[in-house]
């Protein structure tokens, strides 16, 4: 089983603090995400700066695009992003329009999506999804459970590469043992740690311990 | 019947061209929208510049927020926005978190939302929705029809203030005659016109002709 990727989400409200944090962990992680909060605050400058710092790293612009997929995807692609995200309630034409303008599109799963919709994404050539515990749901006391793991496995069985995110820590990773998760995404689990580089190293070590090198 | 508002959406991919266009129409329209494309490109600078130009105008930051509602709403509020948008597949905790940080939140209707969900938004104190013809759906040949008007009327009957948008022109407005639409939103219908000020004036004149002053 290929080991899952480790992705750091930069969900800062300003570019300087995002840059400060990424310098500590950018070389350790597999994928760097320019988070929605950051891109809404700093615009395409955020993507451009991270690309300038990490010319060879996979970079995701987390636009959560709902409309005007072609324009949004083209803009972040020009700024240096490899991938962008679309929201699950976007229409198929929006998703397809985005997918035409950038290497890959990932569907962000929020709210009441269905497996029937998910099949339509696959049929449209979109094979990456991001399974969330919403940050606000986590604040409201929800957490990872069997219900989530079942959904993640079903999406994998359908043929998706599935990223998981939301309140993950090193202890949580073992819940996914035996599942070919594509990517674990964490933001403050790394960036808000006392020692972010150590936190990223610990995440990666635990991934390698469970899934192999 | 109170006349519907006219809202111009600035969906430019760069701030200078948005500023150029808004100077021609900002004093004519009721509401100025810093569109999603623009805010993803220029960040909170876009909101700050438009607020600086129009200190007394209602300004919407169209973030289409899907998560981290509190942070996103607080950030655009600090930049000068009166309202922001959330996507319909966001969770209720996300919507509530956003609504706590800014004067008002509008729910953007994309994809397969239900009236049961809409009732939950009302129950959460959110009473503005935006009914779309998706830009990409329009590109794919869809248009306004009886199906759309019925949905808009039902949302109004539920107690929402409903904005409508997507491929509107002066000719389209009369389709909504007799319906207390809250706001008509148009972007390129005004900004891409040969004479944007004249286009905005024509939109407003038609609104006043149909709904009164």
Which characteristics define this entry?
homodimer, 213 residues, alpha/beta, TIM Barrel, eight-stranded parallel β-barrel, 8 strands, 44% helix, 3-dehydro-L-gulonate-6-phosphate decarboxylase activity (chains A, B), carbohydrate metabolism (chains A, B), OMPdeCOase_dom (chains A, B)
General description of the model:
Two copies of one chain form a homodimer. Chain A has 213 residues and is an alpha/beta fold. Chain A contains ten helices and eight strands. The first copy, chain A, has helices at residues 15-25, 36-42, 44-53, 69-79, 92-99, 115-123, 135-139, 146-158, 188-191, 196-211, and strands at 5-10, 31-34, 58-65, 83-87, 104-109, 128-132, 161-165, 183-186. In chain A, strands 1-2-3-4-5-6-7-8 form an eight-stranded parallel barrel, surrounded by seven helices. Chain A starts with a strand and ends with a helix. The mean pLDDT of chain A is 94. At the A-B interface, helix 2, helix 3, strand 3, helix 4 and helix 5 of A face helix 2, helix 3, strand 3, helix 4 and helix 5 of B.
